[in-house]
Amino acid sequence: MKNVQVKNVVFNDSLPKICVPVTCISESEILDNFNELNNTDIDLAELRADYFEFARDRFKVISLLEKIRKLYHKPLLFTLRTKKEGGASEITADYYFELNNSVIEGKLADMIDIEFFSQPEEINHTIDLAGKNQVKTILSSHDFLKTPSAEEIITILNKMINCGDIAKIAVMPNSEEDVLTLLSASLKLKKEKKGPFIAIAMGPLGIISRISCELFGSCMTYASHKDKSAPGQVDYKLTKEILKIMHS
């Protein structure tokens, strides 16, 4: 399986990495959070730009990223999540790609999350642009209503693995069986060793998918520091301890 390296962090089939999303609204709160995360035992942090009060002002988002880059020294993941995939702001398709492409060209993040099932031509351009600028991609898909079949999950992840650096799918389980469907699909992909991926079942039912990631193949999990960016996230300290126990 290919390894994806960002600074000193390698995403592969060993101990899963921990990413903490920052979902504050004001610039001062965001910068304070990133400053605190410098001194925590995490692997990388994510700026959820859709929570930022000026998320729809490209110049203010870019200015914020420039400030984060000066004070935060671990790998930085940039995400502008749209409403249809669980985001906090109404974002037009044109603005979505305009901002993401600006972030990539300015090398203002080490990694960027791209919603894979948007506009194919724009998606391909943004993925190519990221490759040319040495910005790693997480191609993502979110379903906040249901859990697709295992075959659908595998098909979606394989499409993303073939196009980007890391594939990510997050689904909503409505039963214990749904969680098993997600984990079964993950395990199959793990054994195929095609590329690094992240597979998450959201909400209380899906917490097991966030802490058993190494067993079922996910290369990274999202954990909370102060605020949660998705239902079911666990505090990063507890997540770290559980991952270590399951790794030993």
Report what the structure shows.
The protein has 248 residues and is α/β, with parallel strands linked by helices. It has a single domain, classed as Aldolase class I (TIM Barrel). It is 42% helix and 19% strand. The protein contains nine helices and ten strands. The protein has helices at 27-37, 58-71, 93-105, 120-132, 150-163, 176-192, 207-211, 213-216, 236-247, and strands spanning 4-6, 9-11, 17-22, 44-48, 76-79, 111-115, 136-143, 166-171, 197-201, 220-222. The strands form two sheets. It has an eight-stranded parallel sheet with strand order 9-8-7-6-5-4-3-10. The protein has a two-stranded antiparallel sheet with strand order 1-2. Helix 3 (93-105) links the parallel strand 5 (76-79) and strand 6 (111-115). Helix 1 (27-37) packs parallel to helix 2 and helix 5 packs across helix 6 (176-192). It is globular and about 45 Å long.
Task: Sum this structure up briefly.
The protein has 248 residues and is α/β, with parallel strands linked by helices. Helix content is 42%, strand content 19%.
